[in-house]
Specification:
Blueprint (H helix, E strand, L loop, with lengths): L33 H5 L10 H42 L3 H4 L4 E3 L15 E3 L4 E13 L4 E12 L3 E12 L9 E9 L3 H48 L5
Antiparallel strand pairs: 1-2, 3-4, 4-5, 5-6
Length: 244
């Protein structure tokens, strides 16, 4: 019998014959393939997206950290230099800028302290409050309040003084007979650490004090000019009056 094979493709000399198919067994059609388990779009060799993002973040931080450290070290000295220079500029006019520092006992809410005192103390030196922070906590067990505050004040002759307040009082006692209020102080050095943490606050507080003082001085100037005009007019009128 004559067997004739029709060959298609680019190589008629070496035809490729299909591999014999394995006889199918019962249940083969029910077995899931690896592609169906991992998804039709999964690529086994591709990095997970979260790992790739994590590695890029590590690389970015490795490049950024040395620059940030260098900037921090450079600024440490320069911020201190600026702060000291600002304090020197303010020193001659500090008496005009300084205001009374009034400390109020916390927790009074308009009441008077034990012994009938108003619960206020005036600090021994006038000055400018350049930074202030406070914290208040409530103890549920004994129904008491705890308060702490810290203020840095610029006083003559240009020193920075930290005033620390601590207080405790009971919510059961309306007259504050058991209240405790302590005030302590210490001088603060305008160190690189202090300048780093507080330079912006110091500049803002001094600017507020300058603005308030300028406004007050304008008012005084207006009043003085008015009084001067009155005195000059009085002199002219008196000069025309015959002497006794």
């Amino acid at each position: 019998m004559d067997h004739t094979h029709e060959v298609t493709g680019s190589n008629p000399v070496s035809p490729s014959l299909p591999a014999p198919s394995r006889p199918s067994r019962a249940g083969d059609c029910l077995k899931p393939t690896q592609a169906s388990l991992s998804g039709s779009h999964a690529t086994p060799t591709k990095k997970p997206r979260i790992l790739d993002t994590f590695l890029r973040a590590l690389e970015t931080l490795a490049q950024l950290a040395p620059e940030v450290t260098a900037l921090d070290e450079e600024l440490a000295g320069r911020e201190e230099e600026v702060l000291r220079r600002v304090l020197e500029l303010v020193r001659p006019i500090l008496p005009r800028l300084a205001r009374p520092i009034i400390l109020k006992e916390p927790g009074l809410d308009g009441a008077t302290a034990a012994g009938g005192s108003p619960g206020e103390r005036r600090w021994r030196d006038d000055g400018i409050v350049v930074t202030k922070k406070f914290q208040q906590d409530r103890d549920v067990q004994d129904r008491s309040q705890r308060y702490s505050a810290s203020a840095v004040v610029l006083v003559a002759p240009g020193k920075l003084v930290e005033i620390e307040e601590t207080a405790r009082w009971s919510e059961r006692e309306t007259h504050h007979r058991d209240a405790v209020w302590r005030i302590e102080s210490r001088e603060v050095e305008p160190s690189p650490h202090f300048a780093r943490e507080n330079l912006k606050r110091v500049l803002a507080s001094l600017l507020d004090a300058l603005t308030e003082t300028i406004k007050r001085e304008h008012g005084r100037r207006k009043d003085l000019l008015s009084r001067l005009t009155l005195v000059e007019e009085a002199h002219k009128a008196l000069s025309r009056t015959p002497a006794d």
